[in-house]
Design goal:
Dihydrodipicolinate Reductase, domain 2, six-stranded parallel sheet, 16 helices, eight-stranded mixed sheet, 39% helix, disordered N terminus, alpha/beta, Rossmann fold, binds 6-O-phosphono-beta-D-glucopyranose
Length: 517
C-alpha cells in the first residue's frame, strides 16, 4: 500500500511537471499580450500549484512603473479576466514575485540593471541561475533585445564561462517570426549569434490548445482511424479558422501583416502538418518536428500562375456580425482608406507524398466571418452506390470526421443510417464526443501549457528553425503574387458573410463545398 501510494505520488509529480526554480523575464510587459495573457496565465499556474517554489517574474518595459504600480496594473487584468478565477491569497503571494525594470529596449543600462536584479534574485531566492526570456514586444524590437542580451552576458552563449552560474537560459519568441522568408532567416541568424537552437522556443499558441494536441493522440492512439487516414479513403480535408471579430484595434500591425502572415504561415499550416504528418518515432521534440517538417517539404509549392488558381483573398466591407453593424476593414482605426491588406484567405494545397497524393487540403481563414469557429474536417470517399440505387437511393452524404477545435471542443463522426420504415432511405447521423462533458476538468489555456513547457524545457510544441523557414517558403509565392497584382475588387465580402464568392469557386469547381458551419 505504502509503495502504491509512493508510486502514485511520484507519477503525479512527474505528470505535473513542476519546473526547476527560475525567473521569467518578460520584455514588453506593459503590452496587451503580457498584461492580458502572460501574467494572468502565470498567476493561474501559481493558483494550480504548478510553478516552482522559487520563482520570479521580471517585467521589462518602457513605461514609468515601479514594481508596486505595475503589480496593481496587472492585478486589475487578472481580476477582470474571464478565464482565470481570482483568488486574493494566491494573488498576494504571486504578486510578491513580480519585479519591474523600466528601460528603453536599446538602452544597455536597462540590461545591466536586469543582470544585477537577476543575480540578486538568484542569491536571495535560489533560482539557480535559470532564466526564461520572453519577447512580447513588437517584432521590430527583437533584434535589438537579442543584441543587448548578448552584450550584457545574459544570453545562453554569452553568459560568463568563468564562475558561470549553473543554470539554463531560454528564450521564447512570439509570432510573427519574421515577416517573410528572408527576415525569418535573418532573425534566426540573429538568435543564433547568442543562443543555441535548444534554447529557442518559437511560439505558436495554436499548438498549446488542448484539442490541437489531441490530434496526435486521436490519430495515433486509435487503431480504427489511422489505417483510413490515407488517399485510399480520404476524399479531401478542410481546415477552417473563422473569426467573427475584426482586427481589435491592431490596425497598425494588421496593415503590415494581413491574413497570410497572421494566420496562414503559422496557425493554419501548423494544423495542416498535424493532420498530415506520419507517426513520429516518439512524442518528443525532434521526432515530432522532423515529421512536421517532412510534410511542409511535401506541400507543393505554387508557381505565380498557380497562386491565381489555387489561392483566393478577400477583405471585409461593413456588414452585420452577431446582430451588430460593424465597419469595413478600411474604416478601422489605423487602416488606410484604400488599403489592399487581405483579411481572408482560401487555399487549395496538395501534398506530394505517398499518403496524400491527389487529396486536396482546403484551408481558409478570415476576419468578420459569421462566427468564431476552428475545425478540421476529414471527408471520406463515398462507397459504391450501386447497392442502394436499386432501392431508389440516388445520392448519399459521405462520412465526415470533424475535429472541433474551438469554441465547442470535441469530435463528430457523421455516418449513414437507415431511416426507420419500410422504404430504404438513408440519412446522415452524428456520433459526438464533447470535451467539456466527457472530462469535466479545467483545461489549461494555450499559453499556460506553453509557458510551462518552456519552463520544463520541452520544445515539442514549439516550432524549430527549419519548420518556421519552410512554412515561410510555402507562403512566399502567395505574398509575391499578391504584391505583384494589387486586388481591384476590395472590399469583396461583407462582414458577417463567409468570405468572397471566388473562395466558394475555389472548392466548388472541384465538385466540393465548404462546410456550412
Ligand atoms: C493570433 C492572431 O495569432 O491569433 C490574431 O494574431 C487572431 O489575429 C488570433 O485573432 C486567433 O487566436 P484564437 O486563439 O482566438 O483562435
Amino acid at each position: 500500500m505504502e509503495t502504491l501510494l509512493g508510486d502514485r505520488l511520484r507519477e503525479g509529480l512527474r505528470l505535473r511537471r513542476i519546473p526547476q526554480p527560475c525567473a521569467v523575464v518578460i520584455f514588453g510587459a506593459t503590452g496587451d499580450l503580457a498584461r492580458n495573457r502572460l501574467i494572468p496565465d502565470l498567476y493561474n499556474l501559481a493558483r494550480k500549484g504548478l510553478l516552482p517554489g522559487a520563482f520570479a517574474v521580471v517585467a521589462v518595459a518602457r513605461r514609468p512603473f515601479t514594481s508596486d504600480t505595475f503589480r496593481e496594473q496587472v492585478q486589475e487584468a487578472v481580476q477582470h479576466s474571464t478565464e482565470v478565477p481570482y483568488d486574493a491569497a494566491v494573488w498576494e503571494n504571486f504578486a510578491g514575485s513580480i519585479h519591474y525594470v523600466q528601460s528603453e529596449f536599446p538602452d544597455p543600462a536597462g540590461y545591466a540593471q536586469l543582470r544585477t536584479l537577476l543575480a540578486e534574485l538568484d542569491g536571495r531566492l535560489g533560482l539557480g541561475g535559470n532564466r526564461l526570456f520572453y519577447l512580447a514586444t513588437p517584432p521590430s524590437a527583437y533584434h535589438t533585445i537579442i543584441d543587448r542580451l548578448g552584450e550584457a552576458s545574459l544570453a545562453g552563449r554569452t553568459r560568463p564561462a568563468q564562475g558561470r552560474p549553473a543554470g539554463w537560459t531560454r528564450i521564447i519568441i512570439e509570432k510573427p517570426f519574421g515577416s517573410d522568408l528572408e527576415t525569418a532567416r535573418g532573425l534566426n541568424a540573429k538568435v543564433f549569434e547568442v543562443f543555441d537552437e535548444t534554447e529557442v522556443f518559437r511560439i505558436d499558441h495554436y499548438l498549446g490548445k488542448e484539442t490541437v494536441q489531441n490530434l496526435m493522440i486521436f490519430r495515433f492512439a486509435n487503431t480504427i482511424f489511422e489505417p483510413i487516414w490515407t488517399r485510399q479513403y480520404v476524399d479531401h480535408v478542410q481546415i477552417t479558422v473563422a473569426e467573427s471579430g475584426g482586427i481589435l484595434g491592431r490596425g497598425g500591425y494588421y496593415e503590415e501583416a494581413g491574413v497570410a502572415r497572421d494566420m496562414l504561415q503559422n496557425h493554419l499550416l501548423q494544423l495542416l502538418t498535424l493532420v498530415a504528418m506520419e507517426p513520429p518515432t516518439a512524442i518528443e521534440a525532434d521526432a515530432v518536428r522532423n515529421e512536421k517538417v517532412k510534410i511542409l517539404h511535401a506541400v507543393r509549392l505554387f508557381t505565380p500562375e498557380e497562386v491565381e488558381t489555387f489561392v483566393e483573398r478577400g477583405q471585409y466591407a461593413r456588414g452585420i456580425v452577431d446582430g451588430k453593424e460593424v465597419p469595413g476593414y478600411r474604416q478601422e482605426e489605423r487602416v488606410a482608406p484604400d488599403s489592399v491588406t487581405p483579411t481572408y484567405v482560401g487555399v487549395r494545397f496538395e501534398i506530394d507524398n505517398w499518403r496524400w497524393a491527389g487529396v486536396p487540403f482546403y484551408l481558409r481563414s478570415g476576419k468578420r466571418l459569421p462566427k468564431r469557429v476552428t475545425e478540421i474536417a476529414i471527408q471520406f470517399k463515398l462507397p459504391p452506390l450501386i447497392l442502394f440505387r436499386q432501392a431508389g437511393v440516388e445520392d448519399m452524404e459521405p462520412n465526415m470526421l470533424t475535429l472541433n477545435i474551438q469554441p465547442d471542443e470535441g469530435i463528430t463522426l457523421r455516418f449513414a443510417a437507415k431511416v426507420p420504415g419500410q422504404a430504404t432511405r438513408i440519412r446522415p447521423v452524428n456520433m459526438e464526443f464533447d470535451y467539456g462533458t466527457s472530462f469535466g476538468v479545467e483545461e489549461p489555456t494555450a499559453y499556460e501549457r506553453l509557458l510551462l513547457d518552456a519552463m520544463v524545457g520541452d520544445r515539442t510544441l514549439f516550432a524549430r528553425r527549419d519548420e518556421v523557414e519552410k512554412a515561410w517558403a510555402l507562403v512566399m509565392p502567395i505574398l509575391e503574387a499578391w504584391d505583384a497584382h494589387r486586388p481591384t475588387d476590395f472590399p469583396n465580402y461583407e462582414a458577417g458573410s463567409w468570405g468572397p464568392p471566388a473562395a466558394r469557386a475555389l472548392i466548388e469547381r472541384d465538385g466540393r463545398r465548404w462546410r456550412r458551419l
